[in-house]
Every structure is written in C-alpha cells, then in structure tokens.
Amino acid sequence: MFMTKILSFLIFLFSLNLSAQNADKDSLLVFELNFELDSKRLTKNEKSRIDSLIKVMPIDIVRRAEIYGHTDSLAGIEYNRKLSKSRVISVLRYLEKRGLDPLDVQTDYFGEERPKYENAPETRYKNRRVEIHFYIATALIPEPDQKLSQLSLSKGDKIQIPNLNFVGNQPIPVWQSFEALQELLLLTKRNPDLKLEIQGHVCCSSNLELSEQRARMVYDFLIVNGVPKNRLTYRGLSNSRPLNKERNPREKALNRRVEILILENSDIRRNLEEDENVSIDLRTRVLNVVFFPKSGRLLPSGDFMLNLILEMIKESKGLKYEFVVYDNIDDLKTSHVRAKLLKRNIAKARINSSTCNVTVKERPNNMPIQESQNYIILKITK
Known about the structure:
The protein contains eight helices and twelve strands. It has helices spanning about 1-15, 45-55, 75-95, 180-190, 210-225, 250-255, 300-315, 330-350; strands at about 25-35, 60-70, 105-110, 130-135, 160, 195-200, 230-235, 255-265, 280-285, 320-325, 355-360, 375-380. The model is unreliable at about 1-10 and about 15-25 (pLDDT under 50).
C-alpha cells in the first residue's frame, strides 16, 4: 500500500516536470517557476501551477523548503541580484498564503551568477526563474481520495468536508473551496433521503459565532441550490471538540473544519452524470469589518480584515462577488458612506467592478436595529 501511494504520487510529479529522490525517506521535489523580463511578479499561469501542485501535495506534508532566485544575464550584476531577491519574496509570500510556515523555509538569491541554461538569445528566458526545493515526508503522502459525492453514508457517520478552507476569521470560503461545496451538493442530490447536521469547528480559542457562521454558510449554500430545509440542520461547536492537541500550526489547521453528521439515509441512489453542472450561488456573513461609531471610517482591525477578504477575491477565478450592506443602523446616509468606502477599497485593490461590487439595502423586518455596525453579507455567484 505504501509503495502504491508513492508510485501514484511520483507519476503526477513527473507529469509536472518535477524530480524526486530518496523515496524511502524524505523526497526532494524541485519545482521551477518562470518570470517575465524584469518582472518580480508571479503570473496567473505560475500561480495556477503552484495551486495544482498543492492539490496533490498538501502543504502539511512539507517538512522544509528552499527557495532560490535567479535572473538572466541582461542588466547589471547588482540589479539582477536585487531582482532575484524580489522574485524569492514574491514566491515566499504566495506560499505563505497557501499555508507554508516561513520558519520552515530557507531562501537565497544569486542574480545571474548561477545560470542553469545558456544565456543565448533563444534560451536566456529560462534563467528568469525561482527554484523551490520541497522536502516531503513520504509517510504523510495522502491516499487518493474518493470523491465526497460517491461515498456511501449511513446514519451516525461523520465526515469532514475535505478541502473546505476559509478566509482567516471569516465564514467566507476561499475560491478554491467551491469544488468541495459542489461535491457536497452532488452528494445530497445522489442521496435523496439523506438528512444531515452541519457542524462548524474552530481552533485555538472559543469563538461560537465564527463556528456557527461557517456551518450556516454551508447550510445556506445547500438550501439556495435546491436542498429542502427539512433535510438539513446546522450548529457551531466552537473549539469544544478538537481532533488534535494544537501543538503546532498543522494541528491547529486540522481543528478548523466543517463536518457533516449523517442523521438519516436510505439505500436509494440517483444516477447522475459525473460532470453534471452545479451552479454556484452562495451568501455568507462578513464578520469583523467594523467601523468607528457613526462614522464611515474603518477601525484598523476592520481595515485589516477587509484587505484579507479582498486579497482572496483578487486571486479568484471565474466568480462574481457582491457586498450587501444592510441599513440596520437606521442611518441610511452613513450606510451609503460606508458602502462607498468599500468600493474605494475594492478599486484600490485593483479589482474590477464587474468582479466585485457593493450595494446598500434596507433592513429586513426580521433584522434587529443595531447602534453602529452594519450587517454585511457577501454574495458569490458564477
């Protein structure tokens, strides 16, 4: 079984032009990223290559990493050293966002001093690169997962929704997690008698609201996409049921999760096409984007939280976002001022208004009036 895991993983790696060594211990994977002339920015294509790798090589199986920056021989030596350093920083920041602990990373930069390819006009572009050496614990390489929608589940079963991750301290899923939500929706369609309880969990400290809102997000997603309410319940469990002792970042991350508890199911299964199209229509609460009382200015903590959300939106592909600001403060003028501030921050993040917009709505009758903070939701569609 162990060798089967190693073999299937290495086949994928070689398909990405990676290399592996010492499969009986830690494996060394050498991953190369390319940059445009005089650029320190990762292109969308190179970011996609990193994301594709992480899908089969979870960050938590990486023991350590080394990142080395290089350039071609154009320009001067000092300029090229600074450029190669900037490229290393860009890669490190992107990997940090994907969960890599910077304390496990060694970096260096060489400019034009260590070319891997000839600096002839037709090949010098290959030296505009960053090499990443991933040292992987082969014993932690995961088994190929069966799709969630294909599982046979019985009353009492409990499973974690795989690959469902959130913006920090938010019930907002990162855009890469929509495949996991679509799989859960397919599971409910293939099992017409399935009834389940959605349970939200957080790590580290008590936060009942966040755990409940994350479970509520999944609940609302299923209902909006056609699952009857009588088949679903949800609740937040804060940090009361940890899976791990939280001795390191990996164990903390594993405790941040959403699980489904099977309340009822039958043997009836519907046959659905594997590629059945599942729409994306999601609404979730925005937490901690807070303003000074009776003001259109964000508190520093609110500004930080908004930027985290916008960073995720900026990287997402094929989705549309809309912040809805409800006038539950009974001050329509201030609500509009705050909406305009959100719009300015979206523009400042260089996010097109066709991708992310802001609207203001009146308070629904069932929404209580608050003194200073607007109720904000984020609508995500495709």
